[in-house]
Amino acid sequence: MTTVQEINDRAVEQLVAAHRQRTTETLRLVIRFDPAGTGPDIHLLEVLDEFPGDDTDELLHAEFEPSANLLFLGRLHLYLGSPAQALGAVVRGDAVIAAARSGQVVYSDQSDLAEQLRTAVLGG
Amino acid sequence: MASTAARRWLEQAGSDLRVARALWRRPEPLLEGDAGCHLAALCSQAIEKSIKGYLVLNRTEFAMGHRPDRYLLLLCQPRTVRHAAHLPHLSRLFTLERRQAIRELLELTPGALGVRRLDLPNTEYPWQVQGEWALIPAGHPIFADPARCEQWLKLARQVVDGLARLVSLSELTEQT
Q: In this complex, is the C-beta atom of A25 within 8 Å of any C-beta atom belonging to chain B?
């Protein structure tokens, strides 16, 4: 029997695979994290090159329900930003960063920038 | 895809905003007083195109006039916003105060308050005082106030960036 974990893991794989195809606002880093008390919800912090907005803008948070194209249980939370916006969130100590500290990298483009971001968000 | 079409509008809005910022630095051969009215016009255009781009994304038919602010209330209502995930962002972007500021800027577009109104300050043409063509935008105090010009640039950036982020979000979610 397929578990909730398996269903949601598959959804994360599909999402990351699709986002890696982008040729503009390319994907640098994805961290999956699990804030306490949110049940089966999926939380993903995604860093994309040249994501719109000022460097000082907060990460964009959006919530989604499952759809015919992406099946999962609970809700999907995306936190999106450019590298500068992600680093800004770290410097400010935004709540999403505190929650993401216990997360795991599910994708990195293996660049120095991605490593810098990973270290900044996850620490050490 | 709707997001691709919307992206075109946001790209042009971004270009308008960059030109407005460039004018603000008053490059040669601009005289003092030249930049303000054109900056206002470009900020107005950037905001207009951003809103229209979002309306394309929202699959909302719109008139090709210069008053897209009339659609803003629709973009803060659950029943008229296609992408539910965008609602909190649209509500934060288009607060009452910001909608008012957008309206005031767009009202400076020629003809915004009626094509027969020849007596109104606007960003492009002379206007009449007591039936005579008397005043021009270039150098007029409305457009010469640096603080007001900074406010227009800030407002345009907030709207362009805010809606561009939502278009990007749509592109990401359309891919899955």
A: yes
Under an 8 Å CB criterion, which residues of B touch A? 84-86, 89, 157, 161-162, 164-165, 167-169, 171-173, 175-176
Out of A48, A63, A70, whose CB is closest to B176? A70
Q: Which two tokens stand for residue B103?
A: 């309206």
- Domain with A41 in it: 4-122
Residue B80 makes CB contacts below 8 A (sequence gap 6+) with: B58, B60, B74
Task: For residue A94, give Cα distances in angstroms to A38, A101, B88, B131.
Answer: 18, 11, 18, 58
pLDDT band for B142, please (50, 70, 90 cuts).
Answer: very high
What CATH number did the domain enclosing A94 receive?
Answer: 3.30.460.10
Query: What's the total number of domains in chain A?
Result: 1
Q: What is the ipTM of this complex?
A: 0.81
pTM of the model: 0.88
Residue for token pair 């993903």: A44
8 A C-beta contact, residue A113 and residue A83: yes
Contact B160, B13 (CB under 8 A): yes
Structural domains of chain B ordered from first start: 2-110+139-174 (1.20.120.330)
Q: Which residues pair with A46 in a beta bridge?
A: A30, A80
Cis peptide before B68 (omega within 30 of 0): no
Residue B87 pLDDT grade (very low, low, confident, very high; cuts 50, 70, 90): very high
Residue B118's SS3 state is: coil
For chain B, percent of residues with pLDDT exceeding 90: 74
d(CA A1, CA B30): 72
Please write the tens of the pLDDT for every residue from B94-119. Answer: 999 999 999 999 999 988 887 778 99
